[in-house]
Sequence to fold (449 residues):
Amino acid sequence: MSAGAVGNGHGIAQGNGSAAPDQPLTRRRTSELLRFATAGSVDDGKSTLIGRLLHDSKSILEDQLEQVAETSERRGDGYLNLALLTDGLRAEREQGITIDVAYRYFATPKRKFIIADTPGHEQYTRNTVTGASTADVSVVLVDARNGVSEQTRRHAYICSLLRIPHLVVAVNKMDLVGYSEDVFYAILDELSDWAARLQIPDITFIPISALTGDNVVERSWQMPWYGGPPLLYHLEHLIITPDRNLADVRFPVQWVIRVGRTESDEHRDYRGYAGQVAGGVLRAGQEVVVLPSGRRTTIRQIDTHDGAVEEAFPTMSVTLLAADDIDISRGDMIVEADDPPSVCRELEATLCWMSEEPMQEGGRYAIKHTTRSARAIVDAIEYRVDVNTLAHERGVSSLQLNEIGRVALRVSSPLMVDPYVRNRTTGSFILIDETTNNTVAAGMISAGR
Fold:
């Protein structure tokens, strides 16, 4: 198989919506925000990769670079250790691993980025899920010397579970295997076979060396057999707009804004409903329904920080003004009249358990879904997922820390939900221990009734 070919339905040189740098770019370039999460096994080079992206894209302040250089010299690294730009925790620097989720922001002339540097070790699966939950892209690193590991399969499964629409497999440390084409394609074939069992719509494979910068920001002359773009170019030109649900109008009300009339005011008080668009396109003059009450009204006006607009779409934060004086509260959801979500008190969901205290059948928790809160009871644990084999282990009565399973929940008040596969916002929730106020689980809804 030659570089730039496509095998098993997965992109090698360029995935869905990315163009090679030596081809003319016909679409409009974008400056929209892209969120991506990095993942991989311990020592696969996640922190070094992020440091290289920041360094080679000129996104590091001079004093930061000087500090990294001094620390590298003091540690006796013998080179500029760019991993120190992201390994901010003292425990991480001492152990040489990433523990917490580190967020970094940088921008190029073509796009803005937020990076979530997630942990690689299995015991920090909950942190990985947290960091990747809002990502548009997951960048999974594979050490070229070690090939596909259990952690690689775990991260690909989590990417599939969270419905991250784009997966980039960065085969790192190619310099340590002599930039071997055979090594790269062996990893590609093995992981492609595994990913075929998952629901990942777009996979791209890129051979890189984060330490030397090969195919990170600039194309590498060391790998002439690879015909695709470097990593940053791929991320800059990836089209993510179609990934958002623009069909189903979903607007969870986060805040009711009331401004009383003053002497300088016109003839009416201001009453608006603020929140972030979770789906669909809202337009002035559109008829909508407020759930769970079922009352109908028309959107009179859509306000933003910069003034009124004619339409709003995900993920804009706006304030809606209704044509009628009806009761709308925080936690309600404004939807299109002919396309409502399910209003339900029973849920089937996949949970990632995040607490050291196991979850038991019959457990009671607070549930937070969009802007609405209620209480939930775990009616049943249907099965636990073995993320290494994808087997469903039935007959279990608890979920331990970092375990993933399918559960049935009952809630105290109706929630307006969509399946997670349809809308990642209205299809997700968290469970909270009311005693400690700690988040104990993240959930993805499969069905509601």
